[in-house]
Amino acid sequence: KRARMVVDPDFAIGAIDDRLYGSFVEHLGRAIYGGIYEPGHPQADEMGFRRDVLELVRRLGVTIVRYPGGNFVSGYHWEDGIGPRASRPRRLELAWRSIEPNEVGVDEFAAWARKAGTRVMMAVNLGTRGIDAARHLVEYCNHPGGSHWSDLRRSHGHPEPHGIKVWCLGNEMDGPWQIGHKTAEEYGRLAAETAKAMKMVDPSLELVACGSSHSRMPTFPDWEATVLEHTYDYVDYISLHTYYGNQEDDTANFLAKSMDMDAFIDTVVATCDHVKAKRRSKKTIYLSFDEWNVWYHSHEADRQVAPWQVAPPLLEDVYTFEDALLVGLMLITLMRHADRVKIACLAQLVNVIAPIMTRTGGPAWAQTIYYPFLHASRYGRGVSLRPVIDSPRYDTRDFTDVPVVDGAAVFDPDKGTLTLFVVNRDLHERVRLECSARAFEGYRVLEHLVLEHRDLKATNTEHHPDHVVPHSGGDATVDAGVISATLPAPSWHVIRLG
Ligand code: AHR
Is 262 in the pocket of ligand 1 (CB under 6 A)? Predict the structure, then answer.
């Protein structure tokens, strides 16, 4: 098979916001306790944070981390997690039916984020709480001092404000499973008034309103339209969440699911712009795709977990090679929407549907999905170019005209590099790719990274952590501005030129 691609710096989609490579840490399962934090572990630092996990997070280049939830946030009292640990309460955590010991709270997480070289994206509870809890948290985190909440932070040993810029106004408030679930009208009004008060405390905040929990929600996309009617003047982003699985073991169909993500983004953009037109507004609302991943492997195991434990093993998906391909395709989709999607969070980061796994008391390792994310976050910085792709296509149970070869192109004007991210979805045949990049005449191939494996279901585990890892033995060449490469079936590619 053959596929053709054309890229040109004159056809730019938009600058890639570095927050496209964000992630998410929720108080859920072993994400915090036994994940980022495990005092007594041989790798624990003076604050109890695991150095091996910090190292894997730093290497991944995660630019922003959403915290503390997720469904967890809709029942959370952030005040439980501040001050001396001995006086912090143990609470029944209703979203995941666990015990929350509150050993880690906002101050510890802000310290962890600094160590990890990342920023915090904070969520406030609009399930059981509202304006006061949210504005007090902003004051605690961001006000320099001289007021009740900021002085309390200082008294806890944090003289400098945490300076948290991006805030989520609740989580998945359209979902009946959410504590304090609301209609779009109820949520829209509460989000607008909470946003106003939060921005009164700190006008520099950037705020994210809750969009739909996924595109199959019965209220999608009316939810977005109604919420934005109420919040348009006070928020900067609307959120999107999506998870895909291969329950039917139909890999051709599974790998096409990034097309659903693409259509989801287009619909949310259209809905934002519909409200903009109705309001005769000059302001554009951007998208925060703040939960996305593959999630299905652990569903059955989770049903067996006994309630009311501290840090039970929940949502511990073990990812396969084919999952890494879909994660790569989802990253390609996000890059191709760089004009409107400014923030995206791979959900989540450690142990819970995560690229990084640990054994409590044992080692940490990288799952298969770690690698496409690492490549995108490392090399997908700059300007996303609009690729024209002419590829063979196939049909599946849920999709028609699925391109066998899909890709994104990123030009970094500072470094003068061009990077192609490409996936061959074909399960049986390799594809010969020719990419015309005439404006880049004189460029050479710096590296051609490949993630491939003969077994679609291959995984990385504690004892075989390097079973599925990329190699740099791809055969890309460039001649007179035409890049040629062989794409084995199926595979993920990063072709770097400079
Ligand atoms: O990421 C796991 C859960 O998925 C989050 O808590 C929730 O927001 C979503 O439904």
Answer: no
Q: Which residues contact residue 35 at a Cβ distance below 8 angstroms, ignoring those fewer than 6 apart?
A: 25, 50, 53, 350, 351, 352, 354, 356, 358
Does any ligand 1 atom lie closer than 6 A to the CB of residue 351?
Answer: no
DSSP letter for 17, please.
Answer: P
Q: Both tokens of residue 411?
A: 């030009």
Cα(243) to ligand 1 centroid in Å equals 9
Spatial distance between the Cα atoms of 289 and 268, rounded to a whole number of angstroms: 11
- The answer to whether the CB of 211 is under 6 A from ligand 1 is no
Active-site residue, selected from the candidate residues 291, 316, 322, 452: 291
Quote the pLDDT of residue 476: 98
Q: What is the pLDDT of residue 454?
A: 96
| C-alpha to C-alpha distance for 335 and 16, rounded to whole angstroms | 7
Q: 272 by DSSP, 3-state: which?
A: helix
Active site includes 172?
yes
3-state secondary structure of 461: coil
Three-state secondary-structure class, residue 49: strand
Tokens, residue 107: 């101050």
Q: Which is it for strands 341-347 and 22-24: parallel, antiparallel or unpaired?
A: parallel
- H or E segment and range at residue 418: strand 417-424
Output the pLDDT for position 233: 97
Helix (H, G, I), strand (E, B) or coil at 100: strand
pLDDT tens-digit series, residues 76-109: 999 999 999 999 999 999 999 999 999 999 999 9
- Say whether the peptide bond before residue 221 is cis (omega within 30 degrees of 0): yes
**CA dihedral sign of residues 178, 172, 165, 190:** negative
Question: Which pLDDT score is estimated for 114?
Answer: 98
Mutate to test the pocket of ligand 1, among 171, 208, 291 (most ligand atoms within 8 A of CB): 291
State pTM to two decimals: 0.98
Residues with Cβ < 8 Å from 479, sequence gap 6 or more? none
- Return the percentage of the chain with pLDDT > 70, whole number: 100
CB of 358 within 8 A of CB of 368?
A: no
Which residues does 429 contact at the CB level (< 8 Å), separation at least 6? Answer: 1, 489
Q: Looking at ligand 1, which atom is closest to the CA of residue 171?
A: 8
Q: Among residues 310, 26, 350, which one has the least CA distance to residue 171?
A: 26
pLDDT one-digit tens code per residue, 310-363: 999 999 999 999 999 999 999 999 999 999 999 999 999 999 999 999 999 999
Annotate 320-376 with DSSP letters as a single string. Answer: BHHHHHHHHHHHHHHHTTTTTEEEEEEE-SBSSS-SEEE-TTS-EEE-TTHHHHHHH
Tens digit of each residue's pLDDT (9 = 90 or more) over 411-424: 999 999 999 999 99
Residues 6+ apart with CB under 8 A from 446: 417, 496, 497, 498
The rounded distance, in Å, linking the Cα atoms of 139 and 207 is 15
